[in-house]
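>> Question from a student workshop board

For tomorrow's exercise we were told to take the sequence and the ligand below, predict the bound structure, and bring the output to class. My setup keeps failing. Could a helper post the expected result so I can at least see what it should look like? The ligand is FE2/S2 (inorganic) cluster.
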Amino acid sequence: MALTIKINGESREIEADSDTPLLWVIRDELNLTGTKFGCGVAACGACTVHIDGQPRRSCVTPVSVVGDAEITTIDSINTPEAVAVQTAWQELDVVQCGYCQSGQIMSAIGLLSENKKPSDGDIDTYMGGNACRCATYHRIRAAIHRAADILEA
Amino acid sequence: MTISEKLPMQRRDFLKSSSALGVALVVGFNTRGVLALQGSETATDFNPFVKINADGSVTIIAKHFEMGQGTSTGLTTLIAEELDVPWDDVSVEFAPSNNELYKNLAFGSQGTGGSSAISNSFIQYRQAGAAAKDCLVQAAAKHFDVNVADVKMSQGVLTSGDKKAMVSELVEVAATMTPAEKPVLKEASQFTLIGAESLPRKDSSDKTTGKAMFAMDVKVPNMLYVTVLRSPKFGGQLKSFDASAASDINGFVDAKAMPNGSGVAVYAKSTWASVKARRAISAEWDDAAAESRGSEQMRAAYQELLAADPVYDASGTGKHAEIASAAASAKASVSAEFEFPLLAHAPMEPLNCVIEPAEDGGVLVHDGCQFPSITHPTVAAVLQIPPEKVAIKTYYAGGSFGRRANPTSDYHMEAAMAYALMGGSHAIKLVWMREDDLAGGYYRPMAAHKATIGIGEDGKISGWAHQTAAQSIAKGTPFEQMLVHNGIDHFSVEGIVDTPYKINNMSVGLSDYESPMRVLWWRSVGHTHTAYAMEVLMDMAAEAAAADPVEFRLAHLDMADKDNERLAGVLKLAAEKAGWDGKQMAGKGRGVAVHKSFNSFVALVADVSTDAAGAVSVDNITCAVDCGLAVNPDVIRAQMEGSIGYGLGAIMRNEVTLTDGVVDQANFPQYEPLRITDMPNIDVHIVASAEPPTGVGEPGTPPTGPAVANAIFAANGMRITTLPMTRGGVKFA
Ligand code: FES
Ligand code: FES
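>> Workshop helper replied:
Here is what the output should look like for this input. Compare the format with yours to find the bug.
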């Protein structure tokens, strides 16, 4: 069916079955490849996007339920939290293979939008669903603290 | 300033601009291994390693792919160091597939693995950088009208007295110079980048903004998406299939039987349509030659192998039974049996690649390609085209841990078959779902160990009889000739048979387990299980000798032996940094392990705690590593953190099990990866060393399991000899 979705500030016409996960519309149809596929069952977080500012797993979000909501992907997010997170990630060289990192960053932005000064415990709870097979967790924690400091400054 | 304004020029833009600019200084080696400039050589017998463009920007060509281990940063460091250009002016491009020109000097063929990228490139890449600099210096001497010896170069600026020129002003002339045959390399004391603490990773900005390209992100014109319906059992053959239920799925294009009977290729206009269609297709399989045992039967088969005499005498003592009985009747003795499960690599990016038709009638393969030397001929053979009609474009790889480097190039072969079945009419993108990855094989083999150790009057080990059973990784593959000697697959016994410890009367026996299931190296290969057995046994032996675990290990190392000295060095450093004092604290436990692999030495001290219900948390790991000269200290730290985390998740709770030959684990919820909540604090200490650089991608993994196991024993008295630990009875908080 033909649908219109709002993504990264634009309205895009798409053609997809209503059960198609938003992830595959974003990647295959719109060719926005910053958002990754890791598991397809909401168990890794690689596909995290923001829907009306909230981190969501696009692999289990049927495109038909998105409606009018604003979708934002790693490809264009530029809120102050996003800039702080990306800056901190680069300062601390968090990434290894990098494949999970779009999702990690989208989640971290969500965390800092809700909680300006997260503790290690807050970070672990919020980020627990984002898997990193390279195990960059140690630096993810440090980078979220650093991003909080950047935002505070 | 936004992030993107701060980023260095993107790689793709850069390629465009360099070709537009034309003039470039390109340095590499010719097929005789002699440094040369492009222009003096034809394109086919010359491998560019460094390109300096007319605008002074530099591109290095990485012969090793980047799976997160930091090679793109490491290889850049080697060239930029000798070339003396600003770090931010250098970008990285991956080498094309060419086995002759871009071979790994450690293997003799093009590929990445064995933690060898920096060690085999250390001199080669620096020479290329030095040669490029030599040409620029010669050009500057001509330009300034001075002697070569009077030209200095630093940070991309060439000077002589008060004369000064930028690289960009000299490129054209430099491209006409002949580089010194053996350019002088810097002394270690002159290094400014090698060993520098603050070099940003080359892939950091692209990987934090979603711009980094993985093969999964490739979309080319006229491309179909393919998933494959495979036999649920390893070795099952397709008899027939029925795709009629898929016909009304939007986007479904076609389904075809793979020519080797391995499954059904399902073609569609999107990944999702292919997945949906695959679900709708039913198939019948011939399981006559398939593995149809379950894990319990496999475990029993391993026990039988250990109960019988070993088939191979890996240590060549010829006295296994004698040593075993002497050890058992020593003053004190310990014996134990260990069991290790199948493990999946589960790289974060599920396996995939794209094959598109090329104008010359050949194909272009887009892939995070780890072993071009195998993938290239494999694709050519399947497509029945000459190898020169195959080209491979390498992208960032979303992890591998060994999975992408396999003797059959399995997923490329599937992609090539799927491409051929359509007669080359479409580009195809083969995608594995996570379910395919976990059930698709090429696992770390199951292994079992049994050992009896005697402790003599002097409190030291008087004899050690060790028996291993494992499925061979190398047998039946092209690597067999290189890796199997007298029937013994070195991967099954490495880390035991060549242990650096000085142990009198050590015998190592081996028996092979056989299965049609495919097994493979998994980050640190045999060391994944041998280090666990060795270092838990060393702890048990120390306990039997009533000795401190650190002191006991040191007592079996001989400081006159270089390897032993380095092993002792990391052991002492980790113990010192952790504040090892042998004291016990209620509810806490501390364990140590040390292991040599890939010519590097890693010691870990693990701290665990138990809560009121007895659940274990791994709180802290102190790591000491000696990997020779530390080229990129922060990459080394990151690799230690990552390889410790990778090992930790596996030993805690990961296993692939089978029921009647069918894999039980469907997706991450059944093969739960290490999470941030499980991650201990990790402190890494690097031993200062002037030895040649050695591996860092793998050596952190082997000591992780035993350090944690020994810490758990210290905390609650449980000796965990069955992995994963959750199967061995441990509850984690
Ligand atoms: S791909 Fe969506 S959570 Fe894994
Ligand atoms: S950086 Fe590789 S999976 Fe996270």
